[in-house]
Design a protein that fits this description.
Keywords: Membrane, Transmembrane, Transmembrane helix. The chain crosses the membrane at residues 12-36, 42-62, 74-95, 115-137, 149-168. By secondary structure, the chain is mainly α. The chain has a single domain, classed as Arp2/3 complex 21 kDa subunit ARPC3 (Orthogonal Bundle). The chain is 67% helix and 0% strand. The protein contains eight helices and no strands. Helix 3 (54-62) packs parallel to helix 8 (159-175) and helix 6 runs antiparallel to helix 7 (144-157). The two termini are 23 Å apart. 44% of the residues are buried.
């Protein structure tokens, strides 16, 4: 495990975090607009995967401990700065998403950074986000339908954030702009 971040690592972290923070804010407004429509509590959940791209993408590009957590954190700060509809409460979701995103890499000793870890990280981020939403909005007091439907989309679709991050990361690695510190493998022994 190396914590010595290079300037390139930090720039990658900031650029991805800032871009995804702006995208997150736009997605927050779209989510809010969809949520008030008939069946909007279900429909809006299916665009939540966008919030689970930053952490896996930064970790895939930099591949050092803490980068998934920091990627989510930078995205969250930028989301608040750019006026995310959830406001400062966004940081509650971000903190839990960051932990969920980091866990699969921690469990492998930061030796595997492939698609499987990205999918699991995004799914855990979605699951942790789901539980924070239940707590934050106190939906638990309205019965199982209030708990189940609004966040079903988050858990059902959050893996898509990891998948999209994987392909964005592979595209960026091919440019040579990022990721010069390692060979582009998905830890299966297959060079991509």
């Amino acid at each position: 495990m190396k914590f010595n971040y290079s300037t390139k690592d930090i720039v990658t972290l900031i650029v991805v975090g800032v871009i995804m923070g702006i995208v997150s804010t736009a997605n927050g407004f779209l989510f809010s607009a969809l949520f008030v429509l008939p069946y909007g509590n279900i429909i809006s959940g299916f665009i939540g995967f966008i919030w689970y791209i930053a952490g896996p993408l930064v970790m895939f590009l930099v591949r050092k401990p803490g980068m998934a957590f920091l990627g989510e954190a930078v995205m969250g700060v930028m989301s608040v700065i750019t006026g995310h509809p959830a406001g400062i409460a966004m940081m509650g979701w971000i903190a839990l998403e960051a932990i969920g995103t980091e866990l699969p890499y921690l469990c492998t000793g930061y030796k595997k950074f492939g698609l499987v870890q990205m999918l699991i990280g995004a799914e855990l981020a979605g699951l942790f986000s789901y539980w924070f939403g239940i707590y934050f909005y106190s939906t638990y007091q309205y019965g199982w339908q209030a708990v189940w439907y609004p966040y079903l989309g988050f858990v059902a679709i959050s893996w898509l954030g990891g998948l999209i991050a994987y392909y964005i990361g592979k595209g960026l690695l091919k440019t040579g702009v990022v990721g010069s510190n390692f060979e582009d493998t998905d830890q299966t022994g297959i060079t991509n």
